[in-house]
Hints:
The protein is α/β, with parallel strands linked by helices. It is built from twelve helices and 14 strands. The protein has helices at 43-56, 81-95, 116-131, 161-168, 214-222, 232-249, 254-266, 270-288, 295-319, 327-348, 441-452, 454-481; strands at residues 4-9, 24-26, 34-36, 66-69, 106-109, 181-184, 188-192, 198-203, 356-361, 368-372, 381-385, 401-408, 413-420, 433-434. α1 (43-56) runs antiparallel to α12 (454-481) and α8 crosses α9 (295-319).
Amino acid sequence: MNDIRYVCLSDLHLGAENSILTRLTSVSHSAVELKADPTTASEVMVQLVNCLRRLISQNDGPQKPTLILNGDVLELALADINVAVMVFERFMELTMKPGEELFDKKIYYNPGNHDHHVWETARETQYIEKYLSSTKWGDHLDTPWHTTNMFLEEYDPVPCYLLDTLMNRYEPKYENGAPPRFLVVYPNFGVRSADGQKCVIFSHGHYIESIYRLMTTVRSTLFPDRSEPDLIWDLESENFAWVDFFWSTLGRSGDFGTEVELIYDKLQADTELKKLVSNLAQGITTKYGLRWMPHSVEHLVLTSVLNFFLNDVAKREVKQTDAALSKDAESGLRQFLEKFLLKQIQTDNGGLVPGEVTFVFGHTHKPFEEVRSYAGYGNGLKVFNDGGWVVDSMVPAPVKGAAVILVDEDLNTASVRFYNEADDDTQRPAPPSVSEVIDNPLVQRLKSVVAKSATSWEALTEGVFAQIPRQRVNLSAKIQER
């Protein structure tokens, strides 16, 4: 049987207080509210790594699998960078302890929206240190790239200076002074078979939602005669500043960043959202009110407009819990796959699309696996979503959960569903299982592994069961606080 070659995780949101992989402790001034404790690994993180180690231990060969971190791994939108990277340190201690490394030392990091700044930092630093240093005064200077090439064997590595420097501090030191190294890929990263007939593509997936393409929408509205981008590097170049600002930097903007997180939390509670909107409308009308319109009427009109807009955002972002993909995401996924991804495959693969294509993404926090029909992909596209490890809704949502996506040497792909939220927080989540929606030899091998060691998975289920209600109470406390 073929060994596991790639392990894909996404949406860990390390450092976020609503991530069950971030350990929470009580704070002195509040009997309810909890804060991130980045000095100790959470119980769920410990058990997650134990399960990964058991799965990978079934490999027969000496080669360790390659870890692919597929976005929103560091929480840079709603947590300070020091907290995020300290929780990441705990993850690395569990997975990459010197002499006990679970993965190959070359790790691929494909940023999402909450950690988009990892890509910005990496590409700008590489442009300065690698490209500019190779030019002469007066030379024509090329524009920095907004994306990387798709396929592994043709990829010009972009080092992740943040995480590389972090790992250089590890004690005790690695043998031969060689700690793990992180290479940044963005936004699409692919591996393909030797004969070119199969490929697996990893992408965080934030561009499937229209809110992340906002600058393109604004540009098309203001200048309708201009064509919209149909290449991924053009889409990113138009929207990267917006994505980086709102989801990777704004939430870390001093005390205001704390309020940004509070606004996001309040989107989930109708009563608190109405209070927030009313306060915003009152402030705007007081400072910028129209002289010819009665203050009460102006406040009512503005409140109605803001309620309409924010409720629409809330419905798409945090409230819709009954489907794996919203209508906006379904439409955006089709556009992304048939337009942007397809053209990048053709560009980076000599104009050819492999006969068997698998697409792995996250972002939605709702894991699923399905064979879908999309133009340009022959007999169908195998689509996997690996969910997320956060509690971001006030009520239980069984469609939400997390999985790990595993790929073997023949590029067979399997999803091990670690958990889904139960219908009620008093119920235990279902135990980890291997999905058979898309069947192949790797799926059958993993089913056997999980069945033979069922008791070893119970600790993870128990940890998730204990943490989800705790996270929900903490979220409610934060919403009600101000």
